[in-house]
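Sanity check

After download, print the first record. It should look like this:
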Amino acid sequence: MYGWFDLNTPNVFYNTALFDALDRTRRGENAELFDQMFLGLNLNPNVRGCEPANPTALCGPVNGTTQRGSQHLRLSTTFRDALANGDFVTAANSLNYYNGIGSGPAGAVLGVGGERGNVLRRANKGFNVPGGTAIAGAPVVPAGLFPENWISANPQFNQASYWTNSGKSNYHSLQIQGTVRPTHGLSLQSTYIWSRSLETPLVGSALGSGLNTVPSFTDPTDRDKDYALSPNHVTHDIRTFGTFELPLGPGKLLFNNSSGVVARLIEGWQTSFIINASTGHPPASQPLT
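Expected structure tokens:
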């Protein structure tokens, strides 16, 4: 099961400081880390509610006191949905691509649209002065606090694909088959299969052959967390086929006294049948239970 995954998947689960800051922000708390990251930027121009003590005032640049970075994140249309849903991977990816729309002493974050690490690069170089911030009363942002690869391993690349045998699958089944030999004109064979098809899906396929693919692994370093029922899984499957000789002709239920040409024409007629029944496929991305 040859496929790939992106080494630039946002590092959330192993970046304790970032995960904690996102978690606290989601709970309604204020994390100093986001004060440092967004210092001097206004993530919500022309929006009200960034300052709890003055909720009717327009949002201003983050200063770490009256204007907190966490509150700006909670109000920002770029981040609020991912935060509310606990989707920290998406939130971290948005942080990584954020190019700034704010105003304040530093203006917008400099950088090319879509380039990774812009906010991190800005904090890394300090605010206003190379060695760190010089805003009175604001949190200190020492140079080097946020390296450019703090969220993604290779910020210079849009995607860094690692090709490998990234998926696996297995199949277990119990098969029971029964046969009824011709009895009173009836013969049939029926097979029942109870099965379980499981897989760690592919993120991509080298051949693009339509194999089960997902946008990304939940955690590329622990791909077994995505181990689940495969899309072609069917728990119960019954397949039956048989024949039935119609009771017509000499010695049968109907026309049992027939003979000659009539008997030859009506005897020996058979009908056949096929009955297949199975349970449905699991919904997409159904977790293993």
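If your output differs, re-run the checksum step. Summary of this record's structure: The chain has two domains: 1-165, 166-278.
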